[in-house]
């Protein structure tokens, strides 16, 4: 009974307020479970890496291998966190890079070099963030979207690092 | 009888609070007080009590330290219950001592009304409206005209739109005057006239001190709620999925500035969530520095991924991955007790420096070892 009232309450409030356009509902966000992410990530990456390993006749690790591994790492990230703008953009970028030139590179196509910090303009920092996050440039108009995407991106990055680290530790 | 009812009410609230404990702490103290306020002696308690739930459960992030104030509220409710109905504008603990010590409730009523917080009361407005009407009626009869615009003077963007209250209100003769006042205020969307009208009433009631406090509350309310710590001053409605915006006193009221304010509020909310996500950012106030930190963190994470993937490439052939082992490791090491925000919880702690942050809008699904609060209901909106 409590739940019923709760639902009614929510609905009533939501509908009424929203109709009058005095309230601005927050965007409902996606649900991510860390275990789900981890499972997906590992289950994608491990076979992919095994494939790479088997593809290489000789186990000389060259640039190509690294790039392939990097590609798989990024792809695993993109596939494990579906529903975000950055994951879509990442996937897109990966596929583009992979198809166009042989260079797989990083799907992010950026990192490291960005050091903005000429202070005073928050705009600059937002621009920086846009460059950092995959698909950020498409979010030019929407600051809040950028920030929420950033949140999920950071979380997934953390997860990814943990997974990679644990994979390496196991050996 | 009234006291019995009060006691029951207080007790109910206690039990209600206790059951929702992890969430209660995040409920604003003001919200609780308002809840008490608008509760009527009609047997709508379960109704209302449930009405409180979504407020709690829809609360995001803010740990507004409702714990201690809860106790004071309950005591407050017990003693002042009959008159609490009329006070939808109660907020801030600073007034509670007044209430408890002052035997003349009636005189206090207009004072309290003037206080700009009637957030929760507005929030539960649609539901508790029948009771509010009684309160209104009582006020009216008592010669205290209580424009609901008082509540609009409250500080903040997290109120439920008053139109919701107005829209749902049944037509009652007694409330017509107040109702019209509501509508007038709402349509105009102006703070000043309403403020003035309130002030006039206040003067009539010769409670001038409250208006001053009102004005200061309003001006204070204007400040960015980024850290949402103004609850001590003006009280704060618990956050919902909506950001409710009202034109505050002295502010421009055209749609542009309102939308702008909403946008800023949303951005600041996201910034807060990010702050919890990025380690070591709890003490940082200020958007620019925070953004810098985020940039640094993201860059470092990306570098780590780069480095680890290179390492992985070199090690690749000998990989011996055990999925279950990785998962179990993560779960075992996952950090419990995350921040109050409902959100994405990596929950991994393999003796690494990252903190388990939470991203809004997601529910942590880690079972067992994580002593986390139960998943939030799907967000409305």
Automatic annotation (TrEMBL), chain A:
This is IBH1-like N-terminal domain-containing protein. It comes from Gossypium barbadense (Sea Island cotton). It comes from the Eukaryota. Its main location: nucleus. One of its GO terms (biological process) is regulation of DNA-templated transcription. The keyword RNA-binding does not apply. One of its GO terms (cellular component) is nucleus. Coiled coil: none annotated.
TrEMBL record, chain B:
Residues 147-257 are annotated as: Disordered. InterPro entries: bHLH_dom (IPR011598), bHLH_ZIP_TF (IPR024097), HLH_DNA-bd_sf (IPR036638). Keywords: DNA-binding, Nucleus, Transcription, Transcription regulation. Residues 251-301 form the BHLH domain. Its main location: nucleus. Residues 212-221 have a biased composition (Polar residues). CDD domains: bHLH_AtBPE_like (cd18919). One of its GO terms (molecular function) is DNA-binding transcription factor activity. One of its GO terms (cellular component) is nucleus. It is found in: Nucleus. Residues 187-211 have a biased composition (Basic and acidic residues). This is BHLH domain-containing protein. It comes from Gossypium darwinii (Darwin's cotton). The lineage of its organism: Eukaryota, Viridiplantae, Streptophyta, Embryophyta, Tracheophyta.
């Amino acid at each position: 009974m409590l739940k019923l009232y709760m639902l009614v309450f929510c609905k009533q409030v939501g509908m009424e307020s929203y109709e009058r356009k005095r309230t601005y509902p927050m965007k409902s966000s996606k649900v991510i479970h860390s275990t789900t992410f981890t499972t997906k990530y590992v289950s994608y990456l491990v076979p992919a890496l095994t494939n790479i390993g088997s593809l290489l006749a000789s186990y000389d690790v060259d640039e190509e291998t690294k790039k392939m591994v990097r590609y798989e790492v990024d792809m695993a990230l993109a596939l494990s966190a579906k529903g975000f703008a950055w994951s879509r953009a990442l996937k897109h970028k990966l596929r583009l890079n992979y198809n166009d030139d042989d260079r797989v590179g990083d799907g992010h196509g950026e990192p490291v070099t960005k050091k903005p910090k000429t202070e005073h303009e928050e705009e600059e920092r937002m621009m920086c963030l846009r460059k950092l996050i995959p698909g950020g440039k498409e979010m030019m108009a929407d600051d809040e979207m950028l920030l929420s995407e950033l949140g999920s991106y950071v979380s997934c990055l953390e997860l990814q690092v943990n997974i990679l680290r644990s994979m390496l530790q196991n050996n | 009888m009234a006291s019995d009812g009060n006691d029951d009410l207080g007790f109910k609230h206690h039990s209600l609070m206790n059951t929702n404990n992890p969430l209660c702490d995040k409920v604003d103290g003001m919200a609780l007080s308002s809840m008490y306020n608008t509760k009527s002696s009609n047997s709508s308690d379960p109704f209302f009590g449930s009405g409180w739930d979504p407020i709690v459960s829809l609360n995001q992030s803010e740990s507004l330290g409702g714990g201690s104030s809860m106790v004071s509220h309950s005591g407050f409710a017990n003693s002042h219950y009959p008159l609490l109905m009329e006070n939808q504008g109660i907020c801030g603990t600073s007034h509670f001592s007044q209430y408890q010590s002052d035997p003349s409730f009636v005189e206090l009523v207009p004072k309290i009304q003037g206080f700009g917080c009637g957030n929760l009361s507005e929030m539960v407005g649609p539901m508790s409206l029948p009771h509010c009407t009684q309160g209104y009626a009582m006020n009216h009869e008592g010669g205290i005209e209580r424009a609901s615009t008082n509540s609009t003077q409250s500080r903040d963007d997290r109120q439920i739109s008053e139109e919701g209250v107005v829209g749902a209100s049944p037509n009652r003769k007694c409330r017509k005057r107040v109702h019209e006042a509501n509508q007038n205020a709402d349509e105009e969307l102006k703070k000043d006239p309403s403020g003035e009208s309130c002030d006039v009433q206040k003067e009539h009631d010769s409670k001038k001190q409250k208006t001053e406090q009102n004005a200061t509350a309003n001006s204070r309310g204007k400040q960015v709620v980024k850290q949402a710590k103004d609850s001590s001053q003006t009280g704060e409605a618990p956050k919902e999925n909506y950001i409710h915006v009202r034109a505050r006193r002295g502010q421009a009221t055209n749609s542009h500035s309102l939308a702008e304010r909403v946008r800023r509020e949303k951005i600041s909310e996201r910034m807060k969530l990010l702050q919890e996500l990025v380690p070591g950012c709890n003490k940082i106030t200020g958007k620019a520095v925070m953004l810098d930190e985020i940039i640094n963190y993201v860059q470092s994470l990306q570098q780590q991924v780069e480095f680890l993937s290179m390492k992985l490439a070199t090690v690749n052939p000998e990989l011996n991955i055990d999925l279950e082992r990785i998962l179990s490791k993560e779960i075992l090491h996952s950090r419990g007790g995350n921040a109050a925000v409902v959100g994405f919880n990596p929950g991994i702690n393999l003796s690494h420096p990252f903190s388990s942050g939470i991203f809004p809008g997601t529910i942590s699904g880690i079972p067992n070892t994580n002593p986390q609060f139960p998943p939030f209901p799907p967000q409305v909106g």
